[in-house]
Automatic annotation (TrEMBL):
Main location: cytoplasm
Compartments, as annotated in UniProt: Cytoplasm
Pfam families found in the cross-reference section: HATPase_c (PF02518), HisKA_3 (PF07730)
Keyword Transit peptide set for record: no
Protein name (database record): Oxygen sensor histidine kinase NreB
A GO CC annotation given for this chain: cytoplasm
UniProt KW keywords: 4Fe-4S, ATP-binding, Cytoplasm, Iron, Iron-sulfur, Kinase, Metal-binding, Nucleotide-binding, Phosphoprotein, Transferase, Two-component regulatory system
Species of origin: Kangiella profundi
Domain of life of the organism encoding this protein: Bacteria
Function according to Swiss-Prot or TrEMBL: Member of the two-component regulatory system NreB/NreC involved in the control of dissimilatory nitrate/nitrite reduction in response to oxygen. NreB functions as a direct oxygen sensor histidine kinase which is autophosphorylated, in the absence of oxygen, probably at the conserved histidine residue, and transfers its phosphate group probably to a conserved aspartate residue of NreC. NreB/NreC activates the expression of the nitrate (narGHJI) and nitrite (nir) reductase operons, as well as the putative nitrate transporter gene narT.
Length: 245
């Protein structure tokens, strides 16, 4: 009798454990689906941004160039002034196309690696917007391509936010990578933001950065107050070097 009771209790205990494991698996699958949808949304937002840049920038320049050329064709003999304006439009369209291409995937990231790419990004964004961007790096391991792309994209988004939304005049970037930890900090002296804004799902592209970092098993933290700038910190632990994450 006692033996039957023991067996019954053991069966109940195993059944409860099985239910708990099933619930954990279900919860894990739901979290993975949620993360996958958010990553997909990030990609779609990027496509929208590129499409808008092409339509509003290069598209309008080419439309103006076509109108200019059509006018010159109607007039027969090209006016030197109109010809100069057409050449200016063509050169601007070419320059914008090259800039969009470089920002989408700079070749320097593939050819020379993360630090030269960040140096290039800091210089280009700093000169274009007349702000000071300092880069500090301490890498004791070689990061794999995906991790380098992650760091580059987070820095790119953070700089864009600091310039576009925070009106910053100085941005400080620090990248530290060891065999067991990757730390990235981007600090600006802009207008800052409230806690609600920094935690908002759509807040200034922060959700996209959080999703990118979460896909690597890391954390993204934001420290900011109105009028006191903003610091974005990314921490990823584990085996960081090539073949690690």
């Amino acid at each position: 009798m006692n033996s039957d009771k023991d067996i019954s209790e053991l069966v109940n205990e195993l059944s409860q454990k099985q239910q708990k494991i099933a619930q954990e698996l279900l919860s894990g699958n739901q979290q993975m689906r949620t993360l996958a949808k958010r990553v997909w949304r990030v990609q779609e937002d990027e496509r929208k941004h590129i499409a808008r840049e092409l339509h509003d920038g290069v598209g309008q320049l080419l439309t103006a160039l076509i109108n200019q050329l059509q006018q010159m064709h109607k007039e027969g003999e090209p006016d030197p002034k109109e010809l100069d304006e057409a050449l200016t439009l063509a050169r601007q369209a070419l320059s914008d196309t090259r800039e969009i291409s470089r920002l989408m995937r700079p070749r320097i990231l593939d050819d020379l690696g993360l630090i030269p790419a960040l140096q290039w990004l800091s210089r280009v964004m700093g000169e274009k917007n007349s702000i000071k961007i300092d880069l500090h790096e301490q890498l004791s391991v070689n990061l794999d391509d995906e991790t380098q792309t992650l760091v580059f994209r987070v820095v790119q988004e953070a700089i864009t936010n600091a310039i576009k939304h925070a009106k910053a005049t100085h941005i400080d970037i620090t990248v530290i990578a060891t065999e067991r930890m990757l730390v990235l900090k981007i600090k600006d002296n802009g207008v800052g933001m409230t806690k609600d804004t920094s935690e908002s799902v759509e807040g200034f592209g922060l959700s996209a950065m959080r999703d990118r970092v979460a896909a690597f098993g890391g954390q993204l933290m934001v420290e900011s107050q109105p009028g006191e700038g903003c610091e974005i910190k990314v921490v990823i632990t584990g085996s960081i070097g090539e073949g690690g994450l």
